[in-house]
Amino acid sequence: MVAPEGLAAFKNALDKEQFFYWVAIHNVEQHMAEEHYPELKTTVDDENLVKLRMRRDIESNFEDYDFTMYSEYARMARWMWTMQRRYPHLAKLLHLGTTHQERSIQGMKIGSPVNATNKRIVYIDGGMHAREWPSMHLALYFINELLTKYGKDPQITNYLDKLNFYIIPCVNPDGYEFSRSSEVRLTRMWRKNMAPKNCNGSAYGTVRCCEGVDLNRNFDFHWGGRWGERNPCSDVFQGSSPFSEPESRAIRDLLLSPDVKGKVDAFVTLHTHGQLFIHSYNHKRKTYPDDIEDLKRVGQQAIDAMESLQGTKYQLGSAIDLLGKFGPSTGGASDWAKSIGIKYSYGIELPPEQTTWFAFIMKPHLLIPAAEETWLGVKVIIDAVLALNHL
């Protein structure tokens, strides 16, 4: 990214060295503003943004959720509360923990009847990384599909009759709200949670202090090994210990709670970007679970289902196999889930492709198409859980 005042000199330098280049985004600030508010097609005006947000908040009655726009976390939580009231026999709002900034980590239990505790479970989350806005809104879309189509769609009705679903749309509400607070790139591209500053000495005798922990490096799976990131200023800082963060503990405590432990057959964590369907393990090359062939089979069926809608191409594999240049990753959520016995544990990296550097900024009008195709893949996993249990 180049500042406007330095653009001419930068182009001259590239031309002098005979580098091939193209301009991917001509105005990053405007591009980010349009992600918040697609109506804004002119230069960003902070006062106009504030007025638009206020008008939307006043006009909204919180009764329905607009899946074609990005919303603040409070609106997501209010919508889930509303859905619980609309469907009390199917939905239960869950408070799973409290963040560093005192926000409630909220999710939903969905099933028919919702109070049943003897059924197998599918777990889904989004928003583990702050900047990955589409993942949260897709998880909300899945909640909407399950609740609004029960009793109307035979497949959905069967799902809720035979299974329980636990869905956490936004694991990292602090980080999400911080990433929404400004169009400045370092803010919008924030990945971690908002943990207080950690300090760590470097090999050169300097002390580095920065906020935040990468929640997807904070689970107790090969945490702190050779590939664990100890620099608190890194985007992938692993934290001070496994489950040092309230957000990762919220997931752990839910999955190991008496009503849930040992009953979860699918764990799906949504991320952006890259069009990747990721299975375990990711801490070491060519290291797989004993049931890897079954994981690949179901994963490929899910990819085929997603591709059937719009032709979107996904790759299947472990993250270390698909993204080898980044090295192994330890402390991952889906790997930890697999290690505690959850059969179908996957991470789904949503569109667009990995080669698009600005792909975290998905335009709002693409949210529903992405949700529709991803839901097809998730339903393949749900069907696999039913088949696994002969349901």
Automatic annotation (TrEMBL):
Pfam families from the UniProt entry: Peptidase_M14 (PF00246)
Hydrolase among keywords: yes
GO molecular function ontology, one term from the record: zinc ion binding
GO cellular component: extracellular space
Keyword Signal: yes
Name used for this protein in its record: Peptidase M14 carboxypeptidase A domain-containing protein
Similarity remark: Belongs to the peptidase M14 family.
CC cofactor: Zn(2+)
Organism: Plectus sambesii
Keywords on record: Carboxypeptidase, Hydrolase, Metal-binding, Metalloprotease, Protease, Signal, Zinc
Active site: 349 (proton donor/acceptor)
InterPro entries tied to this protein: Peptidase_M14
Any one Gene Ontology BP term: proteolysis
Domain Peptidase M14: 69-385
